[in-house]
Structure formats: C-alpha cells, structure tokens
C-alpha cells in the first residue's frame, strides 16, 4: 500500500514540496540536533542466543561506510546461527548515507534471486513494521537477508521512503540520524521456509533491543 501511495501523483507533488523544504532547511538552518549514543558494543544480547563473535568493519569498509558506529554480531542457538549488522549515522547532513545491502551484497559476489517487503509484528508497536526480505546466492550457498532503516520516528524498508522521511525529519525535528539494521540467516542446509521462520523470529526478538539502544 505504501508503494502505491508513493507512486501516486499527489505523492510526487508532495515529494517536490519536501525537496524544496529540505533545501531551505539545509541552506538556512545552522542548528541540527545530533544525538549521542552508547557504543554498539554495549548493546545487550538476545534472550536464548549466545554471541559467538562480534566485530567492527575493517578499516577499508569503514572508510567507505562512513558510519559513526557499526557492529556485526554472530549469534548461535543450538545448531542455528545468524548474523546481525547495525550501522548508526548521527547525521546525514554532510551527504553521508547508509549503503543499501542491495548494492553491497552483489558487490561481494552474492546474486539476488528474490526481493520483497514483508510485514513483521514486533513487541511494543501497535502495527507491524515493514522490512526488506532479500534472497541471495553465491555458488551453492543461499542466504535470506532482512534489513530496514530506522529513525526515532520511522521504520523504512524502501530506500525512497527512507529519503522522504529524512527530509521530513530534517524539517520537523532538525535531525537526520538513522540506523541500518541487517540480519542474515543461511538457507543452504535447510529449506527456505524453515530459514525464513527462524529469521523472522529473530527479527521480532532483536527489534526491541536495537530500538532501546538507539537514540530517541
């Protein structure tokens, strides 16, 4: 439904207005609220899952990413293993924006085979959040990738929607901080349906933990 709205004539007109407002804000405003946040390394773990490793991006990747903080954690529960990556950007005013996994994963040799938006019911929210579900393969390997863009006011699956909300928040709240959250579950040694069920359960568990740690 969101994409239908975004593709409508009214939405295109609204986008033009938002662009004008954003240009005014960036051109005239000298103040922006730039939040601080505890290091991602201090983010709590997840009930029932063991953190088997955590790491920062290599310097070469960090130079490209330009996030103020980023962390990858690998979780294990029994035979199940998933990874979660979080990148936080305190401001996007200087043109520093999250890199879409749609670009980064193919650049790492993964081939996309399926892409969709999926609604996920999460604790603490009256309505489901909508996130990206992205299936990729590399040789005999297959993984399901879930990701979304998160601000204090919006959860976005669409890169276009994330940019639109950025303009709104820049004008209304004088802030442009955002986080990219990406979760990967392997579907190589299990069916895609089984991997999907585990991955979405993990999203439901991880979302409130990540939300409590990010600035509000």
Q: Could you explain how this protein is built, in words?
A:
The chain has 216 residues and is of the alpha+beta class. It has one domain. The protein has helices spanning 2-7, 9-28, 59-65, 101-107, 159-172, 192-213, and strands spanning 50-55, 69-77, 80-89, 111-120, 129-138, 141-150, 155-156, 178-186. Strands 1, 2, 3, 4, 5, 6, 7 and 8 form an 8-stranded antiparallel beta sheet that branches. A hairpin with a 2-residue loop joins strand 5 (129-138) and strand 6. Helix 2 crosses helix 5 (159-172). It is globular.
Mean pLDDT, to the nearest integer, reads 85
Distance between the termini: 27 Å
Beta content: 25-35%
| Count of distinct structural domains | 1
Key features of this structure:
single chain, 216 residues, alpha+beta, eight-stranded antiparallel β-sheet, 6 helices, globular
Task: Indicate the topology.
Layout: H1 2-7, H2 9-28, E1 50-55, H3 59-65, E2 69-77, E3 80-89, H4 101-107, E4 111-120, E5 129-138, E6 141-150, E7 155-156, H5 159-172, E8 178-186, H6 192-213
Antiparallel strand pairs: 1-2, 2-3, 3-8, 4-5, 5-6, 6-7, 6-8
Quick rundown:
The protein has helices spanning about 1-5, 10-30, 60-65, 100-105, 160-170, 190-215, and strands spanning about 50-55, 70-75, 80-90, 110-120, 130-140, 140-150, 155, 180-185. By secondary structure, the chain is of the alpha+beta class.
């Amino acid at each position: 439904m969101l994409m239908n709205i975004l593709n409508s004539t009214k939405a295109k007109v609204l986008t033009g207005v938002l662009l004008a407002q954003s240009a005014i804000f960036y051109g005239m405003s000298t103040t922006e609220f730039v939040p601080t946040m505890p290091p991602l390394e201090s983010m709590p773990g997840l009930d029932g899952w063991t953190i088997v490793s955590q790491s920062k991006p290599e310097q070469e990747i960090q130079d490209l990413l330009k996030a103020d903080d980023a962390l990858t954690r690998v979780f294990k529960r029994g035979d199940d293993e998933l990874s979660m990556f979080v990148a936080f950007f305190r401001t996007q005013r200087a043109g520093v924006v999250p890199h879409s996994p749609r670009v980064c994963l193919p650049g790492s040799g993964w081939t996309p085979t399926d892409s969709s938006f999926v609604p996920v019911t999460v604790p603490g929210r009256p309505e489901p959040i909508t996130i990206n579900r992205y299936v990729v393969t590399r040789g005999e390997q297959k993984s399901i990738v879930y990701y979304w863009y998160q601000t204090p006011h919006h959860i976005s699956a669409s890169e276009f929607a994330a940019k639109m909300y950025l303009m709104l928040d820049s004008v209304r709240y004088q802030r442009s901080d955002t986080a990219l959250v990406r979760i990967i579950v392997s579907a190589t040694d299990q069916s895609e349906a089984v991997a999907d069920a585990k991955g979405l359960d993990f999203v439901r568990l991880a979302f409130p933990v990540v939300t409590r740690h990010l600035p509000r």
